[in-house]
Amino acid sequence: MKTQEQPEQTTQTHSNGVLSVKNLTKEFGPHLVLDSISLSIEKGKTTVVIGPSGCGKTVLIKHLIVLLRPTLGEVYFEDRRIDNLSELQLNDVRTHFGFLFQGGALFDSLNVFENIVFPIRQHHKIKDWKEVEELVKAKLAMVGLDGFQHYFPASLSGGQRKRVALARAIALNPEVLLYDEPTTGLDPIRSDVINELVLKLQRELGVTTVVVTHDMNSAYKIADRIVMLHNGRIVADGDADHIRNHPHPVVQQFINGQVGEDDLAILRMSGTASQPQFLPRDFEA
Amino acid sequence: MLATLGEKTITDISNIGQFGRFLWQNAGACLRSSWNHRTYPLIWAQMHIIGVRSVPVIMITGAFVGMTLAIQAYDQLAGMGLEERLGVLINISVVKELGPVLAAVMLAGRVGGALTAELGTMNVTEQIDAVRSMGTDPIWYLVAPRVLACVLLTPFLIIYADLLGILGGYFVGVIQLEINNRAYWDFSASGVGLWDVAVGVVKGIFFGGAIAVISCYKGFTCREGAQGVGQACTEAFVASFISILALDFALAVMFKAIYNTFWPFKSLVG
Question: Does any CB of chain A come closer than 8 Å to the CB of residue B1?
Fold first, then answer.
């Protein structure tokens, strides 16, 4: 299916793009994960990157904050090239970003209060701790967890951990918020809480938002623009309606959650050849 | 076959380069931390974990080394009628070699393993990336305090090991085997100088640095999953152990050269 590998030619370059990548290519050893991607993220909008597991979504979002360095290509933040900066120079750039990691990545050894204070302490000289306590209270209130200051991450549920991580991500009032799979591992109700939080923060703080997800309900709900990755390339780019009506079979297959003919063929072969007793009946003609 | 060999060589060279870069970044971070008062609380916290909590195991190690040496050496010396020289044999062995090396090996197991496991877990759960994403250098925040705490405290831990080694030897030699107390200490004092004690203690600075840097590096570069963290801990201990032995040899050669060079002035240093 050669046509599936062709990148969409409508990759948008917005004039007011706050964040952009140009011809971004990433290889891990012999594996090509991102293949010459160009993308511009519009200021103040929510861009959602979708795609099947292993297509390079997380790798892409980590390049936006240069947690990974490109094999080829460039990353720009407010028209300044950032992928070639040293780690020390990047520290200043990264204060403009908030990053929500897939598992939250809260520091186990610190309680909720200390986790949220961490970025503040790193970049500001704290003179008035009362003021900081108020700030932490306000950030936790934004994610609906005021009162949890003294809890340790181990005693929180998955959804609570993500909300605390979100409070930490917005501690420095970033201009760009990056979310890596914010609803993965959560039940539908908790997922929706996170979706509402993403919308609320975007509305109230006016931040530019980039979300990586494979949860289509979440994508339709929060996205101003949806970009679909497949085999390291952009195959679709547009608003929710554009994606819903996209003619590309890979896009339709993904958004409708249908298994492809290629995958079915592999399952049939592996089932009959090695372990016929496990042949799934559903796949029988 | 040739391709496999070539691939392995390239990987090894790449790993050496990566470690060298880590070492360089860490040296810079340690220097910056030395005059940055914001790092001091982090160093204090690590000193408590690495230093204070290691005191009991280090003391037990030292005591058993001294006692075992006394038991092993007594018969040999007694056969030649030299049992009163047991003190000098035990004490010179403990302060110059066995105390520093065995204390360092114990630290590599206790502290090195914990450092690798902690940083490795932080690595696989993206906590190190989280530190970076918030505009903080993880080498400065996570590695430098641990390395500085190890470098500063390992010499003191070696003094504890030496002290308990000497007391252990005394306990077995004088109390149990009934060697003359005065002769035991007189021979010890004549054979063990300040230089010998200083050599052992200075070794601790190098051993502590090697253990901390290797363990932190293995934690930072460990592969994902429980198996990855476990394997990193094992590799960290093995690499630390070999480094301790190699450093011990290199430092012995170096100190011998220094001693011989300054031999005419040795009365000034003990």
Answer: no
Position A281 confidence tier, pLDDT thresholds 50, 70, 90? low
CB A40 within 8 A of CB A13: yes
Which residues in chain B (36-55) have CB-CB distances under 8 A to chain A? none
CA-to-CA distance for B167 and B91, rounded, in angstroms? 9
Report residue A4's pLDDT band, with 50, 70 and 90 as the boundaries: very low
Going along chain A from its start, the domains and CATH numbers come out as 12-96+175-246 (3.40.50.300), 106-173 (no CATH)
| Residue B50 Rama label (left phi>0; alpha psi -120 to 50; beta) | alpha
Give the ipTM.
Answer: 0.83
Inter-chain CB proximity B126 and A101 less than 8 Å: yes
> In sequence order, what DSSP letters do the residues of A202-256 get, joined into one string?
HHHH--EEEEE-S-HHHHHHH-SEEEEEETTEEEEEE-HHHHHT---HHHHHHHT
Using a CB-CB cut-off of 8 Å, the residues of chain A touching B136 are 91, 119, 122
- Rounded to whole angstroms, the Cα distance separating A283 from B131 reads 47
Question: What pLDDT digit, counting tens, does each position of A222-242 carry?
Answer: 999 999 999 899 999 999 999
- pTM of the prediction? 0.83
Amino acid letter, A38? S
Residue type, A258: Q
Residue B60 has pLDDT above 60, yes or no: yes
Can you give the residue ranges of every domain in chain B? 42-255
Q: Are B141 and B110 in contact (CB under 8 A)?
A: no
pLDDT tens track for A135-161:
999 989 888 888 899 999 999 988 899
Whole-number Å distance between alpha carbons of A248 and A226: 14
